[in-house]
Amino acid sequence: MNVEFSTKAEKLQPHQTGALLYVCASEGPDTADGGNPTAALLYAALEQAQTFAAAQSADNGSLKAVAVVRLQDVQRETIEQAAKEAAAWAQKQENVNVCLAPFCETDSPRVAEIFAAAFGEAVYRFDRYKKEAKPAKLQTAVFYHAEHSQAVQTALDVAAAQLYGCNIAKDLGNAAPNECTPEFLAETAKAEAEKLGAQAKILDKDYIKDNMGAFWSVAKGSKQKPYLVELSHFGAADKNEAPIVLVGKGITFDTGGISLKPGLNMDEMKFDMCGAAAVIGTFCAAVKLKLPINLIAIVPTCENMPSGAANKPGDVVTSMKGLTIEVLNTDAEGRLILCDALTYAEQFKPKAVIDAATLTGACIMALGHDVSGLMGNDQALVDSLLAASRETNDKAWQLPLFDTYKEQLKSNFADIPNIGTPGAGTITAATFLAYFTEDYPWAHLDIAGTAWKSGKEKGATGRPVPLLLNYLRNVR
Question: What does this protein need as cofactor (predicted)?
Fold first, then answer.
């Protein structure tokens, strides 16, 4: 469900149709000149640690929902926490009017964008397999600011595009693996891109088998056919300007192959295509915003299954780049499909290449479930991604890629093995990919811990769409 966001360049009136939400700073809502006395009373009743309060007030013979939010400061995490609390209330309303009057030209769009994103997150549902759906009520949110409505609207457009991309990523990630096959993922990417006016190309098994030996070595173990998806958006004034290339790992189900995973929680291996989902979602969000950049998304997609045709530990395969790889563990398959996709990206002479992948469990051990791992061969690119991470609170942390880690990737029988010796598993996985990215600036996001949640809130998160979209918006 998508919420429609809009602005009005006027003061929010107490009798406006729909629920009323007053976002306040150090002072409460203005009660002069037709202000809302209920909101003022709610604000005055807030205890020191409280940031949100709501009530029903009488309005022309009916009850109207009124709520206030108090921001202790305008740091992003403060706003996000308050917005999340307000969104839990807002999703139960059909229409919400949001007053941003206390905020300046700089802060009002930031507050609007964060609240809109929180509203969109709160109303998201994935219930297409359920007999009885329980959608949120919220349909529209109108943001009021008498002076800065244009800046607020620009921020709302960004929030709407980000939510659009996140929802694509979450829908793909949450889809059952018997529905979200490699073909489904490829066709969905193509349809979503073309719907927005972008270009799409799908390369099939024959191309992969003939040109991408590492990718094919994983794909051949499954009855499902593999695909390589290429999406293109030429938004720069110069259509020949070097593009940004996004690459996403698209393993639609990962059993581990012959190096079979334990059965416990294996259902969550449907999320092993969340890197691909995030790249597709980010691409669509960027196109929706008509960003003035040239952008290409590359998605290698297949399953990793055990069969008589599957990779075996000890197999040696030849990558698209020509490097031979000894497959020591078939559960380290993501890097095998990514390395050929990263080589495929060379033809575009890219300004930068960024890959996103649920690549290593070691990243969860190192950084947990709140922070993505970030590595790369170009510090300026890494710094730009870290800046985007801070701006969106889509957290990432840089890990090193020293040359000494190459000592952990030695094979007696091939140029490199697909796993390193024990220790620094996230870094050695990225070091493996670095062999295939020597000809352009490259960064790698390991999202194994952040792409989905387990337990009661099980589901795809849509990360790192916010980080990547913010980076693309600031490309110069």
Answer: Mn(2+)
